[in-house]
Amino acid sequence: MDVADRQVLRRCRVRLVSELQVAPLWDALLSRELFTPGMIEDIQQAGSKSRGDQARQLVTDLETRGSQALPLFISCLEDTGQNSLASLLRTSSQAAKRDPEAIRPLDLMPVVLKPEELSVVKPDPLKPTPGKLTAAVLGPEELGPTKLRPEVLRPEVPRPEDIGAGGFSDVRAQIGSRGNADLAYILNAEPCGHCLIINNVDFSFGLSTRFGSDIDCEKLQRRFRSLHFLVEVKHNLTSKQMVHALVELARRDHGALDCCVVIILSHGCEASHRQFPGAVYGTDGYPVSIERIVNIFNGTGCPSLGGKPKLFFIQACGGDQKDHGFEVASASPEDRAPDSNPEPDAAPFQDDPGSYDLPDAVSSLPTPSDIFVSYSTFPGFVSWRERKSGSWYIETLDSVFEQWARSEDLQSLLLRVANAVSEKGIYKQIPGCFNFLRKKLFFKT
C-alpha cells in the first residue's frame, strides 16, 4: 500500500472503527484474497468481545496487504452494503491522487515574537492591571541557597557523590540487596521467570534465509539460563503459530515467578501502530505487530504478571532504510571484520519498498506499566546480521550482559549496547527501547 492510501486510511480511521460492520466482510475479503483465513481468524480472536477492536485490527492489518488493498477493500464495502464508508474512502483516495497535500494534517505555523515582545516588564505592585495576574519577579535574595530544601531528597536514593570505590556495584548493593521494592524490582525466584525465544530462519514466501540467526539463538539461550531464566526455544513459526505460542506463555501461571522475557529473531518491517512500532514476520510471510505481541501480556491477558517486569527483545528490521551515518571528529575506529558481509533483516518483497508508513504521531502513546521493549534498530531502518557471527545487536547484547549484568541495571546495559552497535560497520545502526518500567531492574546473576 502506497503512502497516499495509508494516509487515506489514517484520515478515515476514526469513522471506520466506529461504523465498520466487520461480520459481513469476511467472505468478501476472502473471495478477493485480501486476507487469508488464518489472518481473519486472528482478527476475530483479537477482538472477540468487541466489534470496535476487530474493526481497529482489520484497518491496521489492511495497510500490509499490498498496493491494491484499498480499492479491493472499497469494493468489499460496496458488496456488503456499507456504501457511505465506501464513498468516504473513494472520495478521499481521489482527492489524495489529485492533491497529496490535501489529506495531510495541517501544519502548525510557529508564532514569531519580536524582540520588544520578549522584554520583561517588572510590574508595579501599587498599580495592578485589572483582570490580569501580575507576575512575581524573583530577585537574587529569593533564589539564594538558603531557600533550597535539601530534605526533599530521599535519603535511600544514592547520589553521585555517595558512589564509592565499588562504583555501580555499590549502588546495586544499596538498591537491590536490601530488598527495597520501592527502587528496584525484586528478582528472588528460582527460576526467575520464563524466557521464550522465537527463532525464524527459513521462510516459505519471498523472504531470504536468515543465516547467522542460529548463532544468536544459542548465545541467548546460554545468557538467559545464566541469568536464572527457564529458557524455551521455538524455531520457524508461522505468524499464527507465533501468536499461539505467545498466548500460551501468557496464560501460564507466573504467580511464583518474578519476570518474563520474550525474544524474537526474524525479518521485520514497519507497521501502523498506536503504541509500539514495527512488526515481525512469521515464516509464512505474514507480519505480527510488536504492539499485538506486547499486549498479549497486558493485565487482562496475563494477570499473574501484573506488577512484574515484562521484557521484549526484538532482533528484526524496522524498515528498509539504510543509514550511512555522519562524520564526527571523535568517531571510534570502524568495528567491522575485513571479510564481513552483513545482511539486513528487512522485508524485500514489498510492492513499494520506499513507502513504508511512518511512526503514527497522531495517536498519543499510553503508559502500560512494567513493559520494556528493546529494538535492535531505529524504526524505519534495517538491522544488520553477519552470517558467521550473528546480528550486531545480539552479539553486542550478549557481550555487554556478560561483562556488566552483575553490577548495572537494564537501562545502563542497553545504553552500552546502543553505543557499541552505533560504532560498527559502514552502514550504521542504533538500537533503542520503549521503557515503561517503574523501577530499576537488576538481573539475578
TrEMBL record:
Ranges where the record places region Disordered: 325-353
Nucleotide-binding is among the record's keywords: no
Highest taxon above the source species: Eukaryota
Matches recorded under InterPro entries: CARD, CARD_CASP9, Caspase-like_dom_sf, Caspase_cys_AS, Caspase_his_AS, DEATH-like_dom_sf, Pept_C14, Pept_C14_caspase
Caspase family p20 domain ranges (all copies): 191-321
GO CC entries: cytosol
Active site per database record: H267, C317
A UniProt-annotated Pfam family: Peptidase_C14
Family: Belongs to the peptidase C14A family.
The protein's name: Caspase-9
The organism of origin for this protein: Hipposideros armiger (Great Himalayan leaf-nosed bat)
Upper classification of the organism: Eukaryota, Metazoa, Chordata, Craniata, Vertebrata
Originating gene: CASP9
